[in-house]
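Hey, resending since the last one bounced:
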Amino acid sequence: MTLDLEKTAFDIDGVVVDIVTPFLRRLADRHGYTGLTYDDVTSFDLVDALGVPPDVVRELVDELLDHPLEVEARPYPGAAQVLAGLIEQAPLLFVTARPSAGPIAEWFRLTLPELPVERIEIVPTGDPMKKLECLRDHGRRHFIDDHLDTCRMLDQAGLDAFVFDQPWNRRDQTLRRLHGWDEVAVLFNVR
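The structure tokens again:
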């Protein structure tokens, strides 16, 4: 299967940007929760998955969303190279549940300078469940996301949802999965 890039959009956190690693680092450094690993994040609900108080989770998540550069969030392996190949074919659309685009747009500009900012559109929905409407408004049929409930919703609405495999979304194996950016590259026939 080869996807049409102009009919595709991407999520950001958990697909392009690893925010879990800096979250765990700050959780250990500031709050003493040591020994937790990436694979311990087995649910999108961090309170449930890690046994961390809600106020601590909120503090750290807000910091990650508002200051991705300062927390040293990094792209997942292969993301920069594949996105650079894709952006030569067509502008890229990112649809995110983030409340605003500013901080992550600056992250893209400084962390992935090989991606021309004028060929990137970031649409913040503020809520994962609002992604369907956004994708339809932009004429997108395919979406790559790590949020299992969003992928289920899109699948039920007739869109092609691809789950970007993460420890927190493995409880349902019925949807199509991508196990890294090398598999994303294959979907678009880029090297």
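The first strand starts at residue 8 and ends at 10.

Sorry for the duplicate.
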